[in-house]
Structures are given as C-alpha cells and as structure tokens.
Amino acid sequence: MASRKEALTRRTLLTSAAAAAASTLLPRRSAHATSKAKLKIGLLLPFSGTYAALGASISDGMKLAARDHQDRLGGREIEWVVNDAESDPTKTKAKTRQLVSVDKVDILTGPVHSGVCAEMLAVVRETHTLTIVTNAGMQEATGSLCAPHVFRTSFSNWQTSYPCGRVVLRDGHRRVALMYWDYIFGIESMRAFKESFQDGGGTIVNEIPIPFPSEDFAPFLSRLDVSRPEANRPDAVFVFFAGRGAAKFIEAYAAAGLREKMPLYGSGFLTEGVRHVGGSAAEGIKTTLHYADALDNHVNQKFRAAFKKAYSREADVYAVQGYDTVNLLAQALDKVQGDTGAQGELIAALENARLHSPRGPFRFSAAHNPIQNVYLRQIVGGRELFLGVAQQDAEDPATGCKMIAAR
Ligand code: PHB
C-alpha cells in the first residue's frame, strides 16, 4: 500500500494532470468571468421543521464569511438563491432541479438531512453541477457516490460517531442501549459507534429506532426498561438526535429520571445550540464532534466574536461549516478568477485548498471529505467543556469511492 505521503504526491500530480487536460477542453475564460456576471450560489437548506435552526446557522455562517470577502468571490458579486429543503426527501428532486436548471446556480450548497442529500446527489450527478455538501453526513456522498464535482465541508457519519465508542469504553461502560432517528444518518451513526464499541469488548443490549421527525420521546424511553435488575440493564445510552428534536430528547430523558441512572453519549449534534435548554437537563452529556466552542485557536476566537456581534447569538458547528464553505470557495475561485466554467481547474483548486478553520486544520481527502480532528466535549455547569482530541486527523474510510481506486 502506498504511504500517505506517496498517495498525496500521486494525487497532486494526477489532479494537476486532470486539471490541465480538462482546461484544454474548456474555454480558458468563459463569458461569466469576463463580464463578471453575478456568482449564483444555491442554498438547499431547511428553514422549517425540526432542523430549521441548523439551516439558519449554516446560511448565517456563509454570509459572515462572504462579508469578509466584500460579498465577492473570484471577483464576482455573490447572489444567494435560497430554497427551503424542509428535510423532506420526497420534494428534493424538484427543488434541486429548480435551483440547477431554472435558477441556474453556478454552485449548489446544502443540505442538512442525509435523505435529502441522496436525492440531491441523484440530480447533480446528471447535471455535473459543482456541489458542496454543507452538513449531511451520509457515507455514500463521499463513498460509493463520490464524484469529482462533489465536495463535503462538514463530516461523514463515521467521523462523528466512531470515536465515541472508545470514549464510552474508557469511561467504564460495557452495556449500551442505542436510540436514534430511523433514517440514513441515525442508522449509519449507530453502525460506526458499534464498530469501535464492540471491537473494544462492549455489548449493545437494546436498539430503539424512532421515526423521523417524531419529537414524542416518552413512549420510546420507557423501552429502556430501568426496572430490570442493574446487572441486566444498559449502563449508558448512545444516541443521534439534532436540532429542536435533540433539545426535546434531552428534556424528556431528564424528566424520565434517566440522567442519573444511565449517562448519555452521542455525536455532538445532540448538544449543539441546545445546551441552554431545560435548566440542568443536559448536565454531564458527553459527545464527540469535529468542533468545540472552546477550541483555543485565533481563527476560532475571531469567528465566534464576529458571529456573536453579527447575529446576537453563539456560533455552533453548523455556522462553522457554512463559514468554511465560503472561505474554501474564495480560495478556489480566486485561482480561476471567478470562472466557474473552468470546472477542471476549479476542482483542482478545491482539492489543493488548505484552511485554518475555527475547527482546526482542514483539508480534503481524495474522496473530497474533510480530514479533521474529532473532539471530546462535555456539558458542565450549563457550558460546553473541551475535554481533548478524541481522534486526530480523522479520515473517513470512503468505502466504495472509485475516485480513490483510480488514484
Ligand atoms: C444528517 O441527516 O446527515 C444530519 C442531520 C442533522 C445533523 C447531522 C446530520 O445535525
């Protein structure tokens, strides 16, 4: 197997070669760049439903970064084209076609929900639209469905859940119950957690899937069956919920008196933006995520202060993902002077982009997913504490990605 350094060098060479080949086939500078038409960026994000706050954060993070670039990328003024994704996959193909074929966006960004992402990818794989996934973690986006024109600036499900299995074991828990919204993200997140937890000798004693987007958790919590003798019941619970549903879950868990009996763990979405809800209900929850509020780097401090000033609320991981998306696009579009028609060169520029992100160092893997640190966090005294790095330079396995095989 090639070493990481060899693979990277090879990748850089091949990427440059591919870009050079592509650029000879494409017009050097399309009309867009010379006339400096507006740069249309599509946002397919939820602005209603349980994930509404997540869509707003991503969009606000993007606009904050755009402001640092005087609302221009590659010399072109940005025009945002927004469509409410609603977290409803049955509406996604029509909404994506509207953005791509009717609104004619140059670059498509979004979505939050993995089921929406699958439908969106089905369309952009036909239209070859340059697409940046700004949240949805479905493995396939940078696995078997990876494509040269598709990048992800957020995370894969594996990245946010696999490291938590080891954390739970280290904390001395051997018997765990799983609770999750029963769709792509929840299913893949549980699979990744199990991989590390069971490998380390842990046992899953109960799996409780809950239909998305149900926020009525009490009937499902009763299935944790705390009346069983202690030796037979779970000694911790690992979950996936996010947005408004996560806040409701945390409150329901505490109200059922479970917080003291079975510590709660999850991918960090569980407590992003919701930790001030319900008094002490979130107290003690430990999570793993590719961001932590308290990360001690200059970019993070500057970002958090600017976000708070602009929007009068604290930034969260979703805002970071939006912010980084625009900063990465700024780097790449500068290289092609705003010419989105020069897609081969633009892709190569994104592949080679490096970012000092509020989350720490960021670069794309060969499958176009971030290579990034995953952090351990805990809610203590109503605040998120940074407990350390759970996994350094976590890189998704990218199973099934043919772009990697070809390199
Ligand atoms: C997803 O569906 O991939 C998803 C949704 C919300 C999150 C994280 C992942 O916070």
Describe, in plain words, how this protein is organized in 3D.
The chain has 407 residues and is α/β, with parallel strands linked by helices. It folds into 2 domains: 37-155 and 294-371, 3-Layer(aba) Sandwich (Rossmann fold), CATH 3.40.50.2300; 158-289, Rossmann fold. It is built from 13 helices and 15 strands. It has helices spanning 4-25, 31-35, 52-68, 92-102, 114-127, 157-170, 184-199, 218-221, 243-255, 298-311, 317-335, 343-351, 402-405, and strands spanning 39-45, 72-73, 76-84, 107-109, 130-133, 150-152, 175-181, 203-210, 236-240, 264-267, 286-289, 354-357, 360-364, 370-380, 383-394. The strands form 2 sheets. Strands 7, 8, 9, 10, 11, 12, 13, 14 and 15 form a 9-stranded mixed sheet that branches. A 6-stranded mixed sheet has the order 2-3-1-4-5-6, sandwiched between helices. Helix 1 (4-25) packs antiparallel against helix 12, helix 3 (52-68) runs parallel beside helix 11 (317-335) and helix 11 (317-335) packs across helix 12 (343-351). Mean pLDDT is 91; it is low at 1-34. P-hydroxybenzoic acid is lined by residues 51, 54, 112-114, 135-138, 185, 242, 269.
